[in-house]
Amino acid sequence: MAGRSLGDSVIGWYGDVAARGLDSHPDAVRHWLMAGFRLMARKSQFAPDGRFLPSGRRGYALFMRSMVDAMADPDNSVLTSVFMPTESLRALGLKPVTSEAIASFVSGAQAEGAFLGCAEGAGIPETYCSYHRALMGMAESGVLRPRRLLASTSVACDANNLSFKSLARRWGAQSAYVDVPYDVTRDGIAYVADQLRDVTHQAEDIFGRSLDESLLRQMVARSLATQDALEATLPHRGERYLANTMTLDMMEMLDLHLLLGTDEALGLARGMGDDLARQPAYDGAKLVWAHVSPYFLGSIGSLVDCSQTAQVVAGDMMFDCLTPPEGRLYDETHPFEAMAERVVRNCFNGPATRRAQTLVRLAERTGADGAVVFCHWGCKETSGAAQLIRGRLEGAGFPTLVLDGDAVDRANCMEGQMSTRFSAFLELLQERKGRVHDSQ
Amino acid sequence: MTPNSVSVERSTGDRVEARRDGGHVVYYACKYTPVELLAGFGARSELAEADVSSFDEADRLAHPNLCGYGKGLIERLLRDDVREVVLITCCDVIKRAYDVLREQGDFDFIYLLDLPHKRGEAERRLFRARLADLADRYAEYSGRSFDVGAALAAFEPPVRSTGDHVTLLGAHATRALLDNVGEGVGYPVENGTCTERHLLVTPPPELARAASEGDCSACGDDAGAGVGRAGGTLDTFLDWYAGALLNQMPCMRMDDVSQRAKLHGGKGQRGVIYHTMKFCDYYGFEYALATKEEDLPMVKIETDGTSQSLGQLRTRLEAFGETLHGADVAREAAGSREGLGRGYVMGVDSGSTSTDAAIMDERGNLVATVILPTGAKATESARRAKAEVLEKAGLREEDMALKVSTGYGRDNIPDMDTAITEITCHAKGAHFLMPEARTIIDIGGQDSKVIHLDDRGNVLNFVMNDKCAAGTGRFMEMMARTLEMSLEDFCRTGLEWKHEVKISSMCTVFAESEVVSLVAEDTPTPDIIHGLCESVARKTATLARRVNGEAPYLMTGGVANNAGVVQALTNVLGAPVATHEDSQLCGAIGAALLGLESLQQG
């Protein structure tokens, strides 16, 4: 909380202006927010953050551009959940945008409080996931413009089942819900594939377009190649200086979901690999991160952002499906099945042990020194699994910190306590690392 | 089916044998649990009540930020008497509870049944296959064959209440909660919560015939199997049962919940109560939508899933009961006192910080009032308040035609004729003090409430925050203490603010931490206090929006004396917020007025 930077103060003022006009002038607030986002998008393109690697600058700019495009063009934008496969929607020329990205946009502008209040005033429970509360508040206030189609999966979050239906009802729009079975079976994948076909047909009807199946196959082939390229970065992530921040990691994670299947996403993943291969070796503490992060908390960010002493090397949101090519049942010749397989195998689907195994594997592949399980407010899937995951990671030799907070709502973050715990954990890792060095 | 979804554990053959002899009891938590299928294997299914005394183990093994039922379930199912468990992938919390139980528990049999979110033919087929897998696993574990007669005998016919009743919807309700609702509201309670089975069909005659003809496996492909699925009978049963179970009245986790509209407005239904818990979001959503679309008396209550949190619900449930019954309660009391007294009525409001009393004559004129601190003994304070107000009015207790109590201590005041909740009394009292007011904002010592009124002072809707200190007088007291100031100095100093300071948290603990940080940054004290006032105002305005509050506003309760909060509320609500010098007497005046009205009507 202490010592706000000039940048923070400017953004705080920008967010306050938005918040104050919310009740009376939602259109003006939308224009105000969009003006700021456009400015940031231009900045990321023409004056990017010099600390980042070329791929990082590209990832940042890509996120800003895709968000501004989707927000500015609601008629061609589909509101989706983060793990919803979107290649077929992209193949129809549509612009998917997720609740996580929208909420991050407003919390980045320090304007989340007003939207969260708006949602609570409409009766949305205050213990509801704050990504979804912010989304509902934006819709409730009229700042978020209606979409014609909303599409979500049951993976990772019960809130998908509520928010998307509720918004569709409010907007008189259609809502598609993809029910993902708990287990990985061929029947389950076929069931999801059929639902993805249905969503695509629904989109074709709503937007009056026809799917080019060969284009879809190309996109799915790129998705698989993107995942392989991303997986190939893992060994480098453990060895090299990543020059990353929690904000950048969130943006790249969202790029690699929202834009999966595009040339941009494939270029981003390959660019990461190329950049990392040229980076200097890294000797600081290496962390694997579970779930989203409170990227806006300066005191936490200052400990890992572009830091030589500690960096986040991988997270389960970005590496949510680590199926090697030989383990896959389907490829681009069965595009809907391949998309379905990805979501059924997602580590956020199924038992908590699947997610724990993914995190252990990430830690092993990167040679991480420890892990952080971030319990985002209202996410019962993660909170309920936190101690089990910690047990599995520690059992595999990776010290683990369970950190409570909120990745959207500053009011749910006890920043002083959080940074003390996080700092102490890093000290523990560094001391442990020192002992290992000494013994060698 | 992967090993992830099922665990069949036989620790020892002896234990399984012991279960066979002692009878199988399967604990479950969801209305989609196939209790009839399990009954076909001779198992008795028991709903895990989860009314536990603490969540210590659940907090340690999982996380505090799960719903109370999920945490209670972990605590309950880890006890030694639970040997068999079947859970459903019905919501995030139950899935995680299963993970914790599998990791930590020592069960003979534990199974997670994956429930589709949709109810089409593809889903019915998937669900049928999963039920068949459960049947196979349970048969293998228990060594028993399926008996369709036992399965059919376990069916309870779908019968809905048609006499006068209220319906409890939402999250799982303990027996104690159901009793509390019945007592508080004064009507029989129909249980429609998420754990209560609600099948819409009965078994077809073919199944009943199969049962009466005995096990027909001898005619089927599995003839001679002896132990297990009993072939054709089980298949015939599952063909029907998968659809019947899946197509029962849907819970909110289903994709299509339009059928749930039938839960509102049935014959004899006087009102609906929604039970919610923190970190269970489904029913808060449904309630918000239902209040917009349905013209039916509804109220939302929140518990932590245990009977320990029920005490705080009393006021809310009784107030809801009063709106359903009209002013019957006071009228009944008036009827019993007809002809007594000289036409004076007394109202006594036993609150957490003050005890107030008012005497009114038969024309509705205030004769005398007193305000006393409640102190440590509420009953003694009420006795003193009664004595002092009688003395001030120059009257005796026998002169009172009716004595009505209200407030938190209303049931503990001796020699009163009846008790009415502070919601109803407050509304009536506020209407007396400021007839044009349509929304009353009352922030007292330990709770805050917003009441939306009609033009006659009747309650249209209300909302209370009484679960924590957030936004209450106690919050302000604690913040004043953090700043090492008296409450009076705190209120006065806050008016001298110059710069906006944002306090984002309303939680007393979080806000205190923010205040400490601001003090460390040398932020001027008046600015911090103003930030706190704004924070309270924002929280209160959110409550006001929930009841569709409208101007003119009247603010009552102790915090109405803090001009900073009143000003901040005016800003946030965009309309003037009035106060009244007698606002603290609102409850007592309202109680007296309701007494007077009942005498006049009776």
From TrEMBL, chain B:
Single GO term (MF): metal ion binding
Cofactor or coenzyme needed: [4Fe-4S] cluster
Oxidoreductase in keyword set: no
Domain ATPase BadF/BadG/BcrA/BcrD type: residue ranges: 347-595
InterPro entries on file: ATPase_BadF, ATPase_NBD, CoA_E_activase_dom, Dehydratase_Activator_Redct, FldB/FldC_alpha/beta
Entry keyword annotation includes Iron-sulfur: yes
Keywords, alphabetical: Iron, Iron-sulfur, Metal-binding
SUPFAM superfamilies in the cross-refs: Actin-like ATPase domain
PANTHER family: BIFUNCTIONAL PROTEIN [INCLUDES 2-HYDROXYACYL-COA DEHYDRATASE (N-TER) AND ITS ACTIVATOR DOMAIN (C_TERM), BIFUNCTIONAL PROTEIN [INCLUDES 2-HYDROXYACYL-COA DEHYDRATASE (N-TER) AND ITS ACTIVATOR DOMAIN (C_TERM)-RELATED
The protein's name: 2-hydroxyglutaryl-CoA dehydratase
